[in-house]
Specification:
This protein has 435 residues and is an all-alpha fold. The protein folds into two domains: 194 residues, no CATH class; 199 residues, Lysozyme (Orthogonal Bundle), CATH 1.10.530. The protein is 76% helix and 1% strand. It contains 14 helices and two strands; from the N terminus they run ααααααββαααααααα. The chain has a two-stranded antiparallel sheet with strand order 1-2. A hairpin with a 7-residue loop joins β1 and β2.
């Protein structure tokens, strides 16, 4: 049997010493590398944001000018340039976060190995301690050592066992903290990739607008007078508006007049403008290509969303395997339902309020009237019932990103786009009401 002194020397020299040294080295090395990369990437982000500000200044200045052919083309060019810069900025941020996540993952693995090593050492100490504790007094005496020598060996042995136990606790805490940091970074990465998708949509939308204006340039041959006539001829009348289809996510498109009816009912219940409700639903219907092609077994976060999803479909008498939900992207989870794009765990929080407002019990996420009401209730909770431009824009951003992220600059496009859509629908509403 090894003596306690021998075990102490072996464990301190072979396990604890290198363990603490290597942990310190890994932390120092990781922190240094990450800091260096962050500084370099931050410089690039700062430069991109300066260029974005310059393009936004052009847009603002031009919007204050009288409408003209050149003015509209300049605005489109500036918007597209700004979108391209935004996409580059988000790509840098995503790369930065990806590297941090990778570093944290490696650190977690190494800490796990070291914890296992310390547990093995502690187990051996405990085994030896149990053997010592099982000695009877005659055995200690006949071992050839006096009692004082025996307990001199035993005291540092017990101290080392306690030290190792504390060390395990400390490294376990470090592992838990690192895992929490990794999860936070993964959440941020998903957030950034979502923003990249929004900015891709921004670029796509402004590019489409530029194509339309280029077509007008071709037709007008650059003549301002002809351009004015074309603009006047594109103004919609009431008949065209009524015939227009309103796109819905996860449900069949409906006539604009029917969408306005649902939005008006929701507006009266919540105090949120009908045009803003239409703007949110329209924006949610165009945010991606993964909408309505997912399956709850694969794309939802379990059990957070799968369990309430099964309850929702069960109450509605629907087959959970056939109703449309959003497909998860590579960076996170899907499972959003219907025109308002609520995830199941959020929908069940609003279910009673939706039912009370629509008299549909239970309410159906894929039913347009219930979806419009759900969107209006959430917008109202987010402050849109104040019906000021600032409050409505902020409410739209909270609808997408929650209250914490709503004021982040990176989400600006979503809020601006919803307000632009709301303005468009308000003009159509005004035409219908005046007809």
């Amino acid at each position: 049997m090894f003596s306690p002194k021998f075990l102490k020397q072996t464990l301190v020299a072979g396990v604890l010493g290198p363990l603490l040294l290597s942990c310190s080295f890994v932390h120092a090395q990781t922190a240094t590398d990450v800091t260096t990369r962050r500084v370099a990437l931050q410089k690039q982000l700062d430069e991109l944001e300066k260029q974005m500000d310059a393009e936004q200044t052009i847009v603002t200045q031009k919007q204050n000018e009288s409408q003209s052919l050149q003015r509209d083309i300049d605005i489109l060019n500036a918007k597209i340039k700004r979108s391209e810069l935004s996409i580059k900025a988000r790509a840098i941020a995503i790369r930065n976060l990806s590297e941090d996540i990778g570093g944290k993952a490696v650190l977690i693995d190494k800490l796990g190995v070291r914890i296992d090593n310390e547990k093995d050492g502690l187990a051996e100490l405990l085994r030896q301690t149990n053997e010592l504790d099982s000695y009877s007094l005659p055995e200690i005496i006949f071992d050839g050592r006096n009692l004082s020598e025996f307990f001199e060996d035993l005291e540092p042995f017990m101290s080392l066992r306690e030290a190792l136990r504390k060390s395990i606790g400390n490294i376990s805490d470090a592992k838990d903290k690192t895992a929490a940091e990794k999860q936070a970074l993964e959440d941020q990465k998903a957030e950034q990739v979502s923003l990249q998708a929004l900015q891709q949509l921004e670029k796509k939308r402004t590019t489409e607008e530029q194509t339309q204006k280029k077509q007008i340039l071709t037709v007008s041959k650059g003549l301002e007078s002809v351009y004015k006539k074309i603009l006047a001829s594109t103004v919609q009348d009431a008949a065209k508006i009524r015939a227009e289809l309103f796109t819905l996510t996860g449900s069949a498109a409906i006539p604009f007049e029917k969408a306005l009816e649902f939005a008006t009912i929701a507006s009266k219940k919540t105090g949120v403008r009908s045009a803003l409700i239409l703007g949110i639903i329209a924006e949610e219907s165009n945010l991606g290509e993964n909408v309505g092609t997912g399956n709850w077994r694969i794309d939802m976060k379990s059990p957070r969303d799968t369990e309430p999803f099964l309850l929702i479909t069960s109450k509605l008498g629907l087959n959970p395997d056939t109703v449309p939900v959003s497909k998860k992207p590579w960076y996170g989870y899907g499972g959003a339902m219907g025109p308002a794009q609520f995830i199941p765990s959020t929908w069940v929080q609003f279910e009673n309020r939706i039912a009370a407002a629509t008299s549909h019990n239970p309410p159906n996420p894929w039913d347009p009237q219930d979806a419009f009401m759900a969107a209006a209730i959430l917008l109202s909770d987010n402050g849109a019932d104040a019906q000021t431009p600032k409050a409505e824009r902020l409410a739209a951003l909270r609808y997408l990103a929650g209250w914490t992220n709503a004021k982040k600059r990176a989400y600006a496009f979503y809020g601006d786009d919803v307000i632009e859509l709301a303005d468009k629908y308000q003009k159509q509403i005004d035409i219908l009401q005046s007809s």
